[in-house]
Structures
1.
Amino acid sequence: MPLHGIGGRQDLPIPLEFAVTGAAVAITLSFVILAVAWRTPRYRGAASGTALPSGLAAVLDSFWLRWTVRLFGLAAFLYAGMALLAGADRLTNPIFGVVYILVWVGLVPVSLFLGPVWRTLNPLRTLHLLVCRLLRHNPRDGLLELSPRVGLWPASAGIFAFAWLELVAPDRATLPVLQTWLAVYVVAVLFGAVLFGDRWFAAADPFEAYATLMAKLSPWGRRADAVIVVRRPLENLDSLTPRPGLVGLVAALLGSTAYDGFSRSTLWIAWAQNPGYSQTLLGTVALAGFIAFVLVTYSAATVLAGRMSSRAALPGMFAHSVVPIVLGYVVAHYFSLLVLEGQRTLILLSDPLSNGWNVFGTGLLGVNAGLTNHPGAIATVQVSAVVVGHLLGVISAHDRAVALYARGRALAGQVPLLVVMVAYTVGGLLLLFST
Amino acid sequence: MRLSPRGAAACLAVVALTGCGAAETPAADTTPTTMPTTMPTTMPTTMPTTMPTTTPTPTPTTPPSATPPAVPTKTPTSTADVTVDVSIADGKVSTAKPVVKARPGQTVRITAVSDVADQLHVHGYDKALDLKPGMPASVEFETSTKGTFEVETHETGKLLFKLQVS
């Protein structure tokens, strides 16, 4: 129940014909790809890419640029921390917009356009690095060895915890709740870094893990020989290495975004706000249910695909193909929110303590809500995002299938995954249509 | 979170004309969330750290200004384009439709009655309406921004209906 979540406005439901057209296009394209697309793998993942000019690469890898970005991230963190700790407990405090909009939604476009910059921006990583430098300690070394089986599971749990905060937690738009959550987040991430070294950030920081995943759809990457390269986004996606918890991470992202749409439907609210039920408990169960649904259906499809084509199929081998579908969902649900509430947050940021400051000179600007006059354009973006995400997902899965399986069997092996992807896409359109 | 100062002005004018508007708290957008205090008893053990058990929920002060006593027995004919009647009893919400549609520029009039003291809030347009137990009260405003806006109660945190402006 988005009562008092951030953002007073939600998008209009997409028109029925948009939803039907979107679904029809998605299903048709799926079979077209299955029937006519390439029969030999095209994407070479980490081995691919055109190296950037050496001058540009040197600048990107330079000490000064890295530290500028790091210190920018740290400064932004400290500035937001001031609003978090000393600001007023009302919605004019920019911290709500900073966390729920600029960080959580904003990290997606940042990673798509700039590639894997979040790990450099990550203020906790920078803090850890600075303390390690001060103590003349190698930041990679921790007190314990992190088992490779841990993989991305801590970050998946972190995504669940954040989605719970944003969509379920009682009083989530109040300062004490946000303070508590962020305090636990900072302690858990930094404490883990002390225990396991800086590998912990990639494994456990939900924001960094999410941003790193989305950066795989950017054109920027690093080749196997560590050279910075530009490559096609799907080729970049192909370089995502399967590891434990990757499926969990993808499922947590897709499931929680779907729950966001579902929890705003009048049907669910009418039922869940019945007196006698705990809305928090129902919300928690439903959120976990959505994530579990994605985890189970997706894993089952890949296992089934393995049975149908070869024996050695792991769910992780196809997890990358769900990333574009996640992106499609995220764009469809949060695009207008980012535009409108993002502006509001930038305005509010000038007055972090609600005492009349105008630090950046944006304090007196108004939100340009012109976008809301174009519901047709918003609906078009939403449906296109879901359908294009689906299309890219099917293409990625197809390429992986022909790379893994013998010719002929690859086709059969794709069918279960294709069915699941079509279900996610039609489900996504249904959520946009009904909410 | 104020999207339409124009709407507020229009609303005040209409309220003044019809003379049956309840007091509106202008600072509705800055009121922190107040959720039922019985909420977080049944949380799963996996998420103990984020428990907001000690959240100091500020109790909303009932407006000191004397509201016009009760609504006249004869409901005056409203000039609003869209009218919605809501009643809340025993924690249950009854409305004719869960989704109310309006076009931009139309006036919407919400008449609500609750069996407990509460505050009705129109998200996005940031209209607030204080509800006294058993006393019907109304708020009227002009729509402008397109989108879906939730109309809910502050105290009990219930969604009353969604206002769809398209």
2.
Amino acid sequence: MTTEPKKNPPLGRVIVITSGKGGVGKTTSAAAISAGLAKQGFRTVVIDFDVGLRNLDMIMGCERRVVFDFINVIQGDAKLKQALIKDKRLDTLSILPTSQTRDKDALTKEGVETILKELKAEFDYIVCDSPAGIERGAQMAMYFADEAVVVTNPEVSSVRDSDRVLGLLSSQTKRAETEGAEPIKAQVLLTRYDQERVDKGEMMTVEDVLEILAVPLLGVVPESKAVLKASNVGTPVVLDEPSAASRAYEDAVTRLTGTVVEMRIPGERRPGLFQRLFGRAAS
Amino acid sequence: MSLFSFVRKPRPAKTAQTAKDRLQILLAHERSTSGSAEADYLPMLQRDIIAAIRKHVPIGEQDVEVRMERGDQMSSLEINIDLPGAASKAG
């Protein structure tokens, strides 16, 4: 797909995709958001910070094209240009894979800063895919961020971890440590949302989660079979066939770029009288 | 059957509300202590209590039990001290 690249100087905005808890959809979201931004013509690079457990390359479908990685660049064994993989579907999208053999101690604050500085001169958006947890890898992924997307499932352990991560974003980052700097713009992306279970009172609602976390909502991505299907073939959800999940990600991406989009909560259809009377017996 | 089944169907328990309530209570506490290490004062408190009592009564490490119950409106701290001498003196 050929997009019209933006001609103006790069925005150089750093966005971290984080969550604390694992398995909530960070990498899926990082892939979908970066592909969505690139699709809109923004020069975008997505970086895998999960050193030792490389997976972004598989979700993006470029696992067989990795030669050099993020750590090679930090340690001076390769140039940044050599490690960046250009996406075959979107010419505005690049991927910076991480190392599968090193560990997270290979990430240094100075190394990360140098690479981000170089990327800022060329890209509009630099999406950092954080590892789970709150250890070094996650700290490095969030430290230089301008904006944060906290991926949360409507489930107690995920919400608790998101709250903890929000605390770290407002205290353990460069923006937090710099006197007079604007704080990181943090927002929640609610994923694996199941409207049917919410209706039954089995799952917390969007409002419940927002009331607890008290940060703005970036989007609501429904539980969707399209997500696994897309990861099976290494295609970011937004580049796969249209689905409720891909629409939700596209909306979230548009909001990230500063455009107001009405919040649609997918699957929110009140069952009709007929369905209420006869549907239950079948379910 | 299907016409009236919805009438007799028992209302499902609203577990989502329970989840929300539990999170609100827990996070109110976690935020006030702003993180990890601060919540670990109970072992230190227990050590200090043992040291204070040992000035007067010989007690073991296991004789002091500190328990915490966190609530929405108030939290309680329960401290149980086994004084070994007390039983023999009274009896």
